[in-house]
UniProtKB/TrEMBL annotation:
Chain segments annotated as transmembrane: 36-54, 74-95, 102-119, 125-146, 158-178, 198-217, 224-245, 287-305, 370-391, 398-417, 423-450, 462-480
This protein's UniProt keywords: Membrane, Transmembrane, Transmembrane helix, Transport
Domain of life: Bacteria
Family note: Belongs to the nucleobase:cation symporter-2 (NCS2) (TC 2.A.40) family. Azg-like subfamily.
Keyword GTP-binding: no
GO MF terms, alphabetically ordered: purine nucleobase transmembrane transporter activity
Main location group: membrane
Protein name (database record): Guanine/hypoxanthine permease PbuG
Localization terms from the record: Endomembrane system
Membrane topology: Multi-pass membrane protein
GO terms for cellular component: endomembrane system; plasma membrane
Length: 489
């Protein structure tokens, strides 16, 4: 049997999945996408545990932080948190083909819990109605092209600085989540809870981090996922033998969030009774239009620029950005993210937003939306398998954040440090993200510094009109409390 020249030179046929997600085109494989999706899930699965704690009260009784009792219990919030995260992350993968996952936003949920929810007469449904309003407004900004236009107006050096700053930020988040660094001892941060390392959970983190570094430098495929699973197994064994408690229960050297022990069945039936529990205009009737506008603005600005920073960080890590620092299909990415904000409020679990922990999956090799689909499916399964998800303590997942922080830090060479016009704004962006524990604060400082320096040098024409708009918005954002006081709201 002979083979023609055309048959010998014909390229191998790709699968439908490969063509749809452009896996080969982006230099990835289905295996890498699956591993990356799972790594991202494990790196951010803590939100299933943490979001209920923030929204329903640390005692887990379901008592509403505003003083009422109309808030849902922790199990309902956990199930619905995972449900919305799963659906919106799959949407990101399918419609935007981007390796980025979404879930209830940390910081945003704190604003809901400790600011909006504590306003007298505001109910749980009213608070979530404000979140829905914010999501709808930000969706309009995307559909009109405004949000994307602002993103494209940002100088490429500042985009690089945003990515580097997020790298330091998530590394710090990982170290804090693991208890490797903590506040106390007369300094803002110190080594461990007492100035030294102690406790079994710290050992799990250190072993996981060392193993991850060793596997990574030896170029072992699946290094991050292997390390997370190995650290989890070690944590389960330690918990079974030593019976370590959690810090929330008074154990100074205990687990940060959840003890890695399986109590009862690994399967539980989820309660999605929170879906649709929001009042779109109830807050306006209770506290007035001015107060609602300020609350919506604070949520909107944080969501607006956090997502911008995250999509740049994910794209930078995966080498998916074009020459101007923009990711592919940025409009679709922003549309899904905006819908997620409103969906989180409509489901009564706070605004959903893109997660910077997605960079851990990209670090594992993910380059397409298939990894996001895998992460989303894992979240949907977590609605039934929450006991198994709780087996992974933050100490086992935190090493991934530290390693990815290093990987993102390597992009710092893309900043022209001998050009102070971009170097100073870049420095402030990078420094203030971890120092203020806020991506938005870092971006705002960089934007304002950029505008001020250009003005000082008489280079007004070098400032894009939308940078003026963004800078003005950040001035309001940074002075929101004095403005609220002046208006008596």
């Amino acid at each position: 049997m002979t083979t023609t020249t055309d048959e010998r030179e014909a390229p191998p046929r790709s699968s439908g999945i490969d063509r749809f997600f452009k896996i080969t085109e982006r230099g990835s494989t289905i295996g890498a996408e699956i591993r990356g999706g799972l790594v991202t899930f494990f790196a951010m699965s803590y939100i299933i545990i943490l979001n209920p704690i923030i929204l329903s009260g640390a005692d887990g009784t379901g008592r509403f932080l505003g003083g009422g009792t109309d808030g849902p219990n922790m199990a309902m919030i956990a199930a619905t948190t995972a449900l919305v995260a799963g659906i919106m992350t799959i949407a990101m993968g399918v419609f935007a083909n981007y390796p980025m996952a979404l879930a209830a936003g940390l910081g945003l949920n704190a604003v809901v819990a400790f600011t909006i929810a504590t306003i007298p007469d505001v109910t749980w449904a009213d608070a979530m109605g404000i979140v829905v309003i914010e999501g709808l407004i930000i969706l309009v900004l995307v559909l009109t092209g405004f949000r994307e236009a602002v993103f494209r107006a940002v100088p490429v050096e500042l985009k690089t600085a945003i990515s580097v700053g997020i790298g330091l930020f998530i590394a710090l988040v990982g170290l804090v989540n693991a208890g490797f660094v903590a506040s106390g001892g007369g300094t803002p941060l110190q080594l461990g809870a007492t100035g030294s390392l102690a406790g079994w959970p710290i050992l799990v983190f250190v072993v996981g981090l060392v193993l991850m570094i060793v596997l990574w430098v030896r170029k072992v495929r699946g290094a991050i996922l292997i390390s997370i699973l190995a650290a989890t197994v070690l944590a389960v064994v330690i918990q079974a033998i030593a019976g370590v408690g959690t810090k929330g229960a008074g154990a100074a050297n205990g687990w940060s969030l959840n003890a890695p022990a399986l109590d009862g069945s690994p399967v539980s039936v989820p309660d999605f009774g929170l879906l649709g529990q929001f009042s779109l205009l109830g807050s306006i009737e209770k506290v007035g239009v001015v107060t609602v506008v300020l609350l919506v603005f604070s949520l909107l600005l944080a969501d607006f620029f956090d997502t911008m920073g995250t999509m740049v960080a994910v794209g930078s890590e995966g080498k998916l950005l074009d020459e101007t620092g923009n990711p592919p299909r940025s409009r679709a990415i922003l549309v899904v993210d905006s819908i997620a904000a409103a969906a989180g409020g409509a489901a009564s679990v706070s605004s959903n937003t893109s997660y910077v922990e997605s960079t851990t999956g990209v670090g594992e090799g993910a380059r397409t939306g298939l990894s996001a689909v895998v992460t989303g499916i894992a979240f949907l399964l977590a609605t039934f398998l929450s006991p198994l998800v709780a087996l992974v303590p933050s100490e086992a997942a935190a090493p991934a954040l530290v390693l990815v922080g290093f990987l993102m830090m390597t992009q710092i060479t893309g900043i022209k440090w001998n050009n102070v016009e971009v170097a100073i704004p870049a420095f402030l962006t990078i420094a203030l993200m971890p120092f203020t524990y806020s991506i938005t604060a870092g971006i705002g400082a960089g934007f304002l510094a950029f505008v001020v320096i250009k003005l000082a040098l008489g280079k007004v024409k070098a400032i894009h009109p939308l940078m003026w708009v963004a800078a003005a918005a950040f001035v309001i954002y940074f002075t929101l409390d004095p403005i609220s006081d002046a208006l008596g709201v």
